[in-house]
Amino acid sequence: MHTHAVDGDKKVFWAVVVNLLLTVAQIAGGIVSGSLALIADAIHNLSDAMALVIAFGARKIARLPANADMSFGYGRAEIVAALINYTTLIVIGLFLVYEAVLRFIDPQGINGWIVVVLAVVALVIDLITVGLTHSLAKTSVNIRAAFLHNLADALGSLGVIVAGTVIIVYDWRYIDPLITIGIAAYILWQAATEGVGVIRVLMLATPVDVDRDNVAESVREVEGVLGVHHVHVWQIDEHRRSFEAHIVVSDSDIDRWESIKTKIRNVLHERHDVQHSTLEMEFGAIRGCLS
């Protein structure tokens, strides 16, 4: 486990390095060539690097052990990092739209060859970064946010190559801000769709793949349970799910409560992947319903 984490950290580190080097090259090339699309791609690359730095730091923090102040541990550091990265994507997307509109109003001269060459280099580096973070993105919403930064940038680099080629062949300058708006639109769509899941975790929403009524019904099926109410299911972090409820049992089952509780926890874990549960005992007639 430790070796896997260290290997993942190394991948993130090298992804940061190559993105920072690419950002410097693209900004210089964008200024020399006059291409807004290339500068837009450079700004997005810089955000990629910053996203990876944030993701790297969050990974380190998330592995800290639980303590008296953070009794559930630091796992949500990665959720917070993901939210920061998605928010950054939205700001970048809106900025690029603004800059593109200005270019439509006042088109600038562009050196298409510089744009194409640097965009090809950027595409190669973007794909390397995507490769470095792909496996980690499958198990971490934090790394996935950074991964999507880089995937969007790879698509942006393709757009810049198209823009540079059109400028070389047809000298049609409006393609540059047009491609920029396309990049911005994809960034905004990506941030909006992926960011919703992160916000749901922070708002303690029921996980999207969980039917609360179904979870409650599973608990009711446990022998000795008369009723279930005050039911809550939420994510502690990306990999831990929590359950809370009031469990009604018969007065005659007071001596069996620990056994009933163990069965409930087993059902929750096996059927609904719940790692943590808080069960409050109530005796006698059913005092409530699912709420």
Give the gist of this structure.
The protein is mainly alpha-helical and 291 residues long. It has helices at 2-33, 36-62, 77-105, 112-137, 141-170, 175-202, 212-220, 257-272; strands at 225-237, 240-249, 276-283.
Verbal overview:
A hairpin with a 2-residue loop joins strand 1 and strand 2. 40% of the residues are buried. The C terminus is likely disordered. The chain is 68% helix and 11% strand. The chain has two domains: 201 residues, Cation efflux protein transmembrane domain (Alpha-lytic protease prodomain-like, Up-down Bundle); 72 residues, Cation efflux protein, cytoplasmic domain (Alpha-Beta Plaits). With 291 residues, it is mainly alpha-helical. The chain is elongated and about 85 Å long. The chain contains eight helices and three strands; from the N terminus they run αααααααββαβ. It starts with a helix and ends in an 8-residue tail after the last strand. It has a three-stranded mixed sheet, covered by helices on one side. The longest helix is centred in the first third of the chain and has 32 residues.
